[in-house]
Design a protein that fits this description.
Length: 1308
């Protein structure tokens, strides 16, 4: 360009002809004079638009003088960025092709833009000179137009090409808060600055923000103030402000924002320069620029007024303005990452992650008053609004259901209006459901004039609109006219039920906890069939009913009109008056708007009259009367015998569901009364327990106990039958046909649904508990065959564990629950001396037989003279008595119990067994069979006799003969061959004097032909034999002392019973190592391949560990250096649980967590006595929804090791390796994952807690000797004892560690 040419050439070349006058007035006429123009000079000339300035300055440069981009040093991200360093986000040069495209919009004077995501937290497309704008996630609202700025990465001399920002593809426009009412687009630009958050590392942007041809060049952060020499490029945004949120949008037509800032988190609003102001929070700073000073000042003033005097938040907490009803991560279709989603009241909020939620920075919010939720797939659902469809994907089907319910509740909340409900509830009886009595019912049947709860309303809908027209008190606003509200206030549930529920038997009445089937049956009977209604005297006479209706609508008696309509009067009948042909017009003419309102809602109501040709006679209620002897009512259980003098004679009656007692049969006023609905339990005492021969106990809802007695057995049975029938519902009526000892109502949970309790009706008959639970048929629980029976949670839950199921019975009332617990525990114990009355295993073998056989198989197969040598009589008698009281609680331990004592206990049990093992009827046939010479006939006869035995006898005989067959296979060691065993057990099992060998010959035949008589498969037999043999052989292994090297090798013979403590003692004794005070030696399992190790518990058997070894594992005896610190930590704890954050990584994608296998992730863990639970976030204690763990592992199946493989690149060197092995035989499973702690002390605390809990679980691992104080073991404190016992043992530990360890050796 000729530098002396006229200026018009320049302005024409850049297409800015209208600006020529500005140059002329400034005295600039040639290009040479304009050569050194600066942006500030252009501002003074009145050329302020940035686009015009850039084009002018670019055209003034000579081709050879154009500046080249200056390469910047590679950006280095650090965990703690210096305060004076502006953020340097790295932008990927490639686009994110996985995001769904959004068609670009055409803008005048702008080139077409590339496709962008419809809803993405990622930044808009930028040039290398533009940075990533702040994109955080929290909740949102605000109003006014602004532009968002960002700090450039290149020098100010570089001229970038501004790309169109990404937008939400939504059409409808928003309402703007501009003073002139027009579309004022103030060039205010918000920018997020990290300069105030010194601990927050820079966030790398997502890919797809930069054109492929312009890769970004990172720049090293200069050591200067972050605001020095910074040029801000602003992005135009429409901004809205309300009392809670400052929100910014792509344009004023968008409905859903690109970002939100909670005003509760704003700490400062101030002007920062020409046309600019900043909004600061504790974690972010946003810079805005307006179009004028006046507009900037208005924004600052409004924002300061909005935030002045408000309570500031640094992080979101339960007390924050946004209290979530449900929260968690959801995947939004079209995005690569999950969004943290919060459902609160009538809105759904979207956040980038949970951290942004806590600091008050969000993406957008969705008003649920225009929303609708629809299921689409197994884990997917759509939230549909008029402006956009949000397609979410949950992590599981169960979580999807919870999300859908939460969002539907939010829609209901958005559409609800409590004004009508509050007015309806002003009538006291309307505040309780007319059908079940639930509080605060929010629905009504407007034609039946009853207010009902949500669960009953669902059953009303099932009747159809021709019978019940269900409407919401909160959402159906239009239907609630003033007249209809007055009808409900005038009648009320109590008055209406005097018609609808005049004859409800107590056994059929609903309660708030009634199941769905009971509600459906009751509501159908009540409204469709009119089973309980009060019949009008004119019922059955249609003409008289119609005449009575026409007369009654002229007065104000609305209840009488309701009675006439639902007893058959025709609301469309003819009145005989031409001016008022119908009852509706007649009521209107006589100024009775309430009557007209009731009739208008019943014009199409169908009253079922087909089944009622005569007035319905309700079934007669149970009634009985007579004299009983009664004691004073009590508030505690009866623990002592009541004498006859403590009883008083009373006249008792049972009528209309009320049990009353009078001073005599001549008195009209009762001394007291008990409604059948208040009775929760009826207990029948054993004969002659109290002064009168027959007594029974009644337990009431009010925690009172009533004791009645009589000497008349027949009268006693009738009273028990009548009282039970009065309060037991029809669904549990089969219980009344049982000869129960106790019957009543209890709350319970089972393994299928532990979230909510359900009401069950139970009856105890002998050792069987009969139950009728909600929505289920009758069940039988055989208490003597339970795997576990315990009382937990401070005597408030009774746990019954049977095969494949666990039942939790809850103590809703302490008095009757204590009686149930005592009765069930007694019934679950041994009830007599026959086999069928013993406590049994799942295979119908008495627990005493199973325990003794198992102990002898483990510890006594090689004991010389087993079953022939006598034990100590006192110990045998004591052991028999313990088994007789509760065989399930007896644990036989090596070292604590002697083999001969256990063998004699088993023999004494069979000798004293009533009717014997072979039964008194068939015992002689068994003996005579032994004399048959033909072996095949003998075996056939034995098989026939075996099949004739009762089920328990047959199972017990097979278990015993199987055991004796195994014992004789070790006759070379125990000297008990086939003949010797037959001599011992023949007289014992047949209960003979043993003078001849007939009984012995029968037992010898059974043992010798065991596989044929009992039809045992050879594969099972060989497997069992090999297992028994392998437990008797010793194993020689190499053990290392302190380190793995040849000079430290020790070859040790490991018997099957050797414990870790015994192995440690043997190795130390071989080397003559003296153990000093405060030294803890342990046996360690070390894996070289996995780079992990763990100390074995001192009672842990070594041989099973060796069998599970790989070639890269070995045993090591060394000091436990951290034991002292671990013991001190445990002694300072009262609660055995622990919780906190750890970094987690899985070995492979086996847990289904959706985590990448190459990094560690922060997770929140809670470890208690039963399980290890993992959460995605810090658990909020009082938030039910957040209590759901991501994973839950039983502690007893975990094995915890110290150390993590280095190739995994753990973030810290303080880590644990956890191995999970399931105990399911059909599908054994093994998983492995890794946990990292921040400090060594934290790792020790977690590991100590793991060991302390697991030591309490190792019930079967025992030692023949007491633990040596030289060995490191964490079970020095009785972790399963009471709190006082634990405190005592902690105090005693510092005085005498040996005494404490001896005390804890007796704990399970």
């Amino acid at each position: 360009i000729n530098q002396g040419r006229d200026l018009f050439v320049l302005v024409f070349a850049v297409l800015l002809v209208p600006l020529e006058n500005a140059f002329r007035s400034a005295g600039l006429a040639t290009l040479r004079q304009c050569r050194n123009l600066t942006p500030d000079q252009l501002d003074q000339m009145g050329i302020t638009l940035p686009g015009h300035q850039r084009r002018i300055l670019a055209s003034l440069r000579v081709d050879g003088e154009r500046e080249r981009p200056v390469p910047k040093e590679r950006t280095k991200f650090r965990s703690n960025a210096p305060a004076d360093c502006p953020p340097r986000p790295h932008v990927s040069p490639t686009s994110d092709t996985s995001l769904p495209p959004v068609p670009p919009r055409s803008t005048p004077n702008c080139p077409p833009q590339r496709f962008t995501s419809a809803l993405s937290p990622s930044p808009p497309a930028r040039t290398p000179g533009s940075p990533k704008p702040d994109r955080h996630a929290v909740k949102a609202p605000a109003e006014q137009s602004v532009s968002q700025s960002s700090t450039p990465l290149s020098t100010p001399t570089h001229t970038p090409t501004q790309a169109r920002p990404q937008t939400l593809a939504i059409q409808p426009s928003a309402q703007h808060l501009v003073s002139d009412g027009g579309r004022k687009m103030s060039p205010v630009s918000p920018v997020a600055s990290f300069s105030d958050d010194r601990n927050a590392p820079p966030l790398p942007p997502k890919a797809g923000g930069v054109p492929k041809s312009l890769p970004p060049i990172p720049q090293r952060c200069p050591a200067q103030s972050p605001r020095a020499h910074r040029a801000l490029y602003y992005q135009r945004r429409w901004v809205k402000l309300d009392v809670d949120y400052l929100r910014y949008f792509d344009s004023d037509k968008e409905i859903y924002s690109k970002g939100t800032i909670s005003t509760a988190f704003i700490t400062n609003v101030s002007s920062v320069g020409e046309l600019k102001f900043e909004v600061a929070t504790n974690n972010r700073t946003f810079i805005f620029r307006a179009e004028s000073e006046a507009e900037r000042n208005d924004w600052v003033t409004v924002l300061q007024d909005c935030t002045r005097g408000r309570h500031r938040h640094s992080t979101m907490n339960p007390g924050s303005p946004l209290t979530p009803d449900y929260q968690g991560y959801l995947e939004l279709k079209g995005l690569r990452s999950k969004l943290y989603t919060v459902v609160a009241l009538d809105k759904v909020y979207l956040y980038k992650n949970i951290e942004d939620y806590r600091i008050g920075v969000g993406i957008t919010s969705i008003e649920m008053n225009v929303g609708n939720v629809k299921d689409t797939d197994r884990r997917s659902f759509d939230l549909t609004t008029p402006y956009r469809i949000f397609s979410f994907i949950a992590e599981s089907e169960q979580l999807k259901e919870q999300w859908v319910n939460a969002m539907r509740n939010a829609i209901g909340e958005a559409l609800s209006n409590s004004e009508v409900a509050e007015r309806i509830w002003a009538e006291p009886s309307n505040s309780l459901c007319a059908d079940c009595g639930a509080p605060k019912p929010e629905w009504a049947a407007i034609n039946l004039c009853v207010v009902v709860c949500k669960r009953c309303a669902g059953e009303h809908r099932g009747l159809g609109p021709s019978i019940s027209k269900v409407r919401s008190l909160k959402m159906d606003r239009k239907v609630w006219t003033e007249e209809l509200i007055q009808v409900f206030l005038l009648l009320g549930n109590e008055r209406v039920n005097s018609f609808w529920a005049a004859n409800v038997p107590p056994s059929e009445a609903l309660t708030p906890s009634s199941c769905t089937e009971e509600r459906r049956r009751f509501i159908t009977n009540k409204y469709r069939q009119g089973k309980y209604r009060k019949y009008h005297p004119l019922y059955g006479n249609q003409r008289e009913l119609d005449n009575a209706l026409c007369i009654n609508v002229q007065c104000s008696d609305v209840l009488e009109t309701l009675s006439l309509i639902f007893c058959g009067a025709d609301v469309n009948c003819s009145t005989g008056m031409p001016n008022w042909p119908s009852p509706l017009s007649l009521a209107t003419a006589h100024s009775q708007p309430l009557q007209a309102e009731l009739i208008s809602h019943n014009l199409n109501t169908v009253v079922d009259m087909a089944m009622d040709t005569v007035p319905y006679a309700p079934p007669p209620c149970v009634s009985y009367n007579g004299f009983l002897f009664k004691t004073a009512s009590m508030a505690r259980a009866i623990t002592e015998r009541k004498t006859r003098e403590e009883f008083s004679r009373r006249w008792c009656t049972l009528n209309d569901g009320t049990f009353s007692y009078y001073e005599s049969d001549k008195n009209s006023n009762p001394n007291g009364a008990l409604k059948a609905s208040e009775i929760v339990c009826l207990a029948v005492d054993t004969p002659e327990r109290h002064g009168y021969e027959n007594t029974f106990e009644l337990y009431s809802e009010s925690e009172r106990l009533y004791l009645f007695g009589t000497d008349d057995g027949d009268s006693h049975k009738e009273w028990v039958k009548s009282l039970a029938k009065s309060f037991i519902p029809a669904s549990a009526e089969p219980l009344l046909r049982l000869g129960f000892e106790r019957i009543g109502r209890l709350k319970c949970k089972d393994g299928l649904n532990l979230q909510t309790s359900k009401v069950g009706w139970f009856a105890l008959v002998g050792s069987t508990l009969h139950a009728y639970l909600n929505d289920s048929k009758g069940e039988e629980i055989h208490l003597r065959k339970l795997n576990e029976l315990s009382i937990q949670q401070d005597n408030e839950v009774l746990v019954l564990v049977e095969k494949g199921r666990t039942l939790y019975i809850e103590g809703e009332r302490k008095l009757d629950f204590a009686g149930w617990c005592a009765a069930i525990q007694t019934a679950a114990g041994s009830g007599g001396d026959t086999l069928s009355q013993q406590q049994l295993t799942e295979t119908d073998i008495p627990v005493i037989v199973h325990s003794c056989i198992g102990y002898i198989t483990q510890c006594g197969l090689t004991s010389e003279g087993i079953y022939r040598k006598s034990g100590v009589n006192s110990r045998v008698a004591a052991l028999c008595e313990r088994f007789r009281q509760d065989a399930r609680s007896v644990r036989l331990r090596e070292g604590e119990h002697q083999v001969d004592d256990v063998s004699n206990t088993l023999k004494r049990f069979f000798r004293e067994l009533e009717e014997g093992l072979f039964t008194s009827e068939d015992a002689r046939t068994w003996l005579s069979t032994a004399a048959i010479q033909d072996e095949s006939k003998k075996i056939s006869q034995y098989q026939m006799l075996l099949n004739r035995l009762p089920r328990v006898n047959k199972a017990t005989l097979q278990a015993l003969i199987n055991h004796l067959y195994c014992v004789q296979r070790f006759s070379e060691l125990n000297q008990m061959n086939l003949h010797n065993l037959a001599i011992v057990f023949g007289p014992t099992l047949f209960q003979t004097d043993g003078k001849d060998y007939t009984a012995g010959r029968a037992i010898e035949d059974l043992i010798q032909h065991y596989t044929l008589i009992f039809e045992v498969r050879l594969t099972v037999h060989y497997k069992q034999s090999s297992e028994v043999k392998s437990s008797q052989w010793h194993f020689i292994c190499t053990v290392y002392l302190e380190e793995k090297k040849e000079t430290a090798e020790q070859h040790v013979k490991i018997p099957g019973s050797m414990t870790a403590a015994e192995l440690t003692c043997e190795v130390l004794d071989r080397r003559n190592i003296a153990v000093k005070d405060r030294e803890y030696w342990s046996c360690w399992e070390v894996s070289d391949k996995e780079e992990m190790e763990r100390p074995l518990h001192y009672q842990e058997r070594v041989l099973p560990i060796l069998h599970s070894f790989g070639t890269d594992s070995h045993l090591l005896i060394k000091k436990h250096l951290a034991m002292e610190a671990m013991i001190v930590y445990l002694t300072s704890k009262v609660d055995v649980s622990k919780h906190g954050m750890m970094k987690f990584r899985e070995e492979r994608s086996i847990l289904g967590l959706g985590l990448t296998s190459g990094s560690f992730h922060d997770r929140y863990f809670i470890l208690n006595s039963s399980s290890l639970r993992m959460y995605k976030e810090v658990r909020v204690r009082f938030d039910r929804q957040s209590n759901r763990p991501e994973r839950d592992w039983p502690v007893k199946n975990l094995r915890v090791y110290l150390g993590i493989k280095k190739k995994l690149r753990p973030p810290t060197c303080w880590g644990l390796t956890v191995v999970y092995e399931s105990k399911k035989q059909e599908r054994p499973e093994k998983q492995q994952w890794y946990l990292c702690c921040d400090t060594q002390s934290e790792m020790r605390e977690w590991y100590a807690t793991f060991l302390s809990i697991q030591d309490g679980l190792q019930q079967t691992r025992v030692s023949r000797v007491l633990p040596d104080t030289r060995h490191g073991n964490v079970s020095l404190i009785p972790l399963r004892g009471s709190e006082n016992e634990m405190r005592n043992s902690v105090a005693a530990f510092s005085q005498d560690p040996l005494a404490v360890s001896q005390f804890t050796n007796h704990w399970d």
